[in-house]
Each structure stands twice: as structure tokens, then as C-alpha cells.
Amino acid sequence: MPPKPNARPLRVLVVGAGVGGISVARGLLQDGHDVTVYEQRPQVRAAGGAVTIWPNGAAVLRQLGVSMDGAGQTLSTVRVVTSTGRRLTTLDAAAIADRMGAPVRMVPRRILLARLLAGFPAERIRCNSRAVGVTSTPTGVQLEFEDDGWADGDLVIGADGLHSMVRDIVGGRDAEPTGWCSWQGLITLPEIADKQVAMVMVGDHGNLGLWPAGGRDLQFWFDLPWSVGFVRPKDPLSLIRSSFTGWSDRADRVLATLTDDDLAPSPYPHFRHPIPRSPGLGAVTLLGDAAHTMPPTLAQGTNQALLDTMVLRKALSDCRTGDLAAALRWYEKTRRRKVRAVSWVASRQVSHGEAVLRPAAMLSDRFMTWTLTMFLRAVSHRRMWATRE
Ligand SMILES: Cc1cc2nc3c(=O)[nH]c(=O)nc-3n(C[C@H](O)[C@H](O)[C@H](O)COP(=O)(O)OP(=O)(O)OC[C@H]3O[C@@H](n4cnc5c(N)ncnc54)[C@H](O)[C@@H]3O)c2cc1C
To answer: Where is the FAD-binding domain (predicted)?
Structure first.
């Protein structure tokens, strides 16, 4: 998406080198803009286990020229059952992939970030640069850093995640906890029987997921209630075992293998913030979790950050000199309705007792697969998928 002939390359300051920041920087560099990414940490690194890349996110990665060949594990099936093993639905991930033209893939975060960084000019990332302020100047915007340094640009993209500083500056509301958290990570098992089959189990007071992530790696998550003031138990494994033992043989095998070390980075509290009518201001906009933190229920957060990248590239490619703020507002408006729908669905309560879940089990697997496919298509700006790679 190169700028139109009458557009000029922009000096773009990206705050945050997560998947959102790196993907938008990669895309805008390809489009001929002058992009620098500022990251507060000493190096770019991916925290956490694996993420699901759905066909909507995969389409953007393809546009960005990021090869995902051989990364992680493609999935054919997602089985959803109750905590006693009663079938709720079986999603046909292979059919979703066929209809949407890209696989459903579980990818360790470090691999996704490494693929995004392949061929990315390292000098375009400034680590140890914690941004603390943004001000307007007569020629654009200025980003200020903790060490009293600054950088001048035409626009600032706040891709600084869940507790975004840039969101504070544009007057966005803080993300709020949903009351749940995930104890989550990647473990390596001696063998994984059904490598293409992911499993979700829904219980009265918690849920679990076991998703193959490539080779002998398995992504596990155990969702339990969480509240502000939560005190992490000294022995979290006992909490997890007492909540989930006996749900299934597969889950019991994982529980027997898990160690407290595997749970060390957990729990990850779930957050959501209301998506504002206009999440940007002047030459400042937001992207990824900074714009729309949502619970991981639909595994869409990363995919939505990638879609932000696609739409923002389009907005800036159409932008003429002087229309920058209008282009950014167009990007925000174009994304808002779709991302709101995703965030709303992702925020529905999953955990329920068997009696409440029984009606859901009456819907056919085909219908549920079709519904999810239609939903993903509806929220993914598909007309923008077919742009040059
Ligand atoms: C338990 C859990 C499971 C999930 N599973 C999935 C999944 O399966 N699929 C999926 O699509 N999504 C999933 N998500 C969501 C996904 O992790 C996020 O949506 C995604 O990482 C957001 O990327 P981001 O780049 O916007 O933010 P981040 O990855 O948070 O990156 C923000 C970056 O900004 C930096 N930063 C912050 N403040 C500053 C500052 N002031 N100055 C400079 N740098 C700064 C940070 O250090 C960080 O590197 C999950 C989330 C959770 C909690």
C-alpha cells in the first residue's frame, strides 16, 4: 500500500514493540514511510505461551510478507465439552480455513515475533526508550522519553498495550478487570496424540484449554475467577490441581506434568476497556491492546492488532498532505464497529453449569462452525485482504 503519488512519506513514531507495534512498523516501512519503534524494555521479547492465529490475522501476515510456513501447529478441530466430558460443540477448523483461505494456527509467541522481525531493520527499534508524554508541535508531534530525550514526527501510534500511556494522553478510559484470569503457558510433553485437535472444557467455576502448539509443545490454560487484591498462592499448582483434577484423562496427564515453574508468569488477569467513539486525537492514534484490550475468550487480540495494521496502512496510503488527522479518524471509525463486536462477544461469560450449557449442545457442529466463520468474515474487512503482498 504505497502512499499515493501526491502523498508524502510520514515520520511515524510507534510506541511499543509488541506484535502490534512491530507489525504496523513493518507495514509502514514497506509503504515507504520513515518509521521508528520505541520500546521500554532492554530488548524486544515475547512474553507468555502461544497465540491462535485465525485466518483473519493470517491474511494480514501474508500482506506483510511474513511467512508462517512450518510455524507452530495448524488445527483441524476444536472440541468443546463440559467438565464432565459431555459434548457441547466440535468446531471444524479445517472448514473455517477452507472458507476463509488461511489456516487456523497455534503459534508460540516467540516464533510469531521472530517471523515478524525477520528482515526488519534492527536500527528502526530503539529499546530502553520508555515514552512518557506526547505533545503537539507546529510541525507535528513530539514524543517524550523518561530520560528527558524526545523524538519529532508527523504522527504517534500508541501500540503500548494493555496499560497504554498513549491512551491516557488521548483521554481513553483504563482497561478494567473482568473478574477472571488465565494460568497459562507452554509445556513440552513426551508425545501429543491428536496434534491437530484442540480441546476446551467448560465448567461451573472455571474452564481449561489444551491446544497443541507445534512439535511436542502444548499450550495449556486454566481460567479461574480473579479480583483486584488477589493474593497469589505460594503453591499455585495445588490451586490448579484442586480445581481441575478429574475433568479428563488428558487434563490429568497435563496436571501431573505441570510444575510451579510452568505457572511462574501466571496468572494473566483478563481486562477489557470500553472502545471509545474516537480513540485518537490530532496526529495520535492507538493500535492493538492499547485501543481494545479484550479477554482472550475468542483468542482474537493479536489478530485484531494485525487487522488494525491493515486498516491503518490503507488509511495512510490514501492520506494526502494535511489530511493526516482525517485519515487517522477514518481508520479508528472503520475499525471501531467491528472490533467492538469482537470485544463484546469475547467478554461473554464462558463458565456455566451443565444445565445452562445443555441447550448449546443441541446446535449442530455444522451450524456452530458456520456461525463462527460468518462472524470472523463479518469483522475482518475482507475487501482489504486482496491487496498486494
Ligand atoms: C492469557 C492471554 C491469552 C491470550 N491468547 C491470545 C490468543 O490465543 N490469540 C490472540 O490473538 N490473542 C491472545 N491474547 C491477546 C494478545 O496477547 C494481545 O492482544 C496482544 O499481545 C496485543 O499486542 P500489542 O502489541 O497490542 O500489545 P503488547 O504485546 O502488550 O505490546 C506492548 C509493548 O509496548 C511496550 N510499552 C508499554 N508501555 C510503553 C511505553 N510507555 N514506552 C515504550 N514502550 C512501552 C511494552 O513493553 C510491550 O513490548 C491473549 C491475552 C492473554 C492475556
So the answer is: 11-173, 282-342
Rounded to the nearest 10°, the torsion over CA 165, 376, 317, 44 is 40
Atom of ligand 1 nearest to the CA of 162: 30
Total Cβ atoms within 10 A of residue 280? 25
pLDDT band, residue 146 (cuts 50/70/90): very high
**Please, which pLDDT band fits residue 321 given cuts at 50, 70 and 90?**
low
Split at pLDDT 50, 70, 90, the class of 388 is very low
What does the alpha-carbon distance between residue 224 and residue 253 come to, in Å, rounded to a whole number? 20
Q: What are phi and psi of 36, to 5 degrees?
A: -130, 135
Nearest alpha-carbon partner for 321 in 62, 2, 6:
6
Give the N- to C-terminal CA distance of the chain in Å, as an integer: 9
Instruction: Name the band, by pLDDT with cuts 50, 70 and 90, for residue 350.
Output: confident
Q: Please tell me whether the peptide bond between 267 and the residue prior to it is cis, using omega within 30 degrees of 0.
A: yes
Query: CATH number of 11-176+271-384: 3.50.50.60, 3.40.50.300, 1.10.443.10, 1.20.120.140?
Result: 3.50.50.60
Q: Which of 24, 40, 73, 164 to mutate to test the pocket of ligand 1 (most atoms within 8 A of CB)?
A: 40
For residues 275 and 207, the model is more confident at 207
Q: What's the pLDDT score for residue 354? A: 78
Average pLDDT of the residues in 116-129:
97
Residue 145, H or E segment: strand 140-145
Residues 294, 291: Cα–Cα separation, whole Å: 10
Q: What is the best residue among 116, 160, 298 to mutate for testing ligand 1's pocket, by most ligand atoms within 8 Å of CB?
A: 160
- For residue range 94-103, what is the model confidence (pLDDT) as tens digits? 999 999 999 9
Grid cell locating 180 = 477472571
| Residue 351 exposed, middle or buried by CB count within 10 Å (0-12, 13-18, 19+) | middle
Walk across the sheet containing 34-38 and list its strands.
125-126, 34-38, 11-15, 155-158, 284-286
Write the residue with the smallest CA distance to atom 9 of ligand 1: 299
Looking up cell 486525537 gives 281
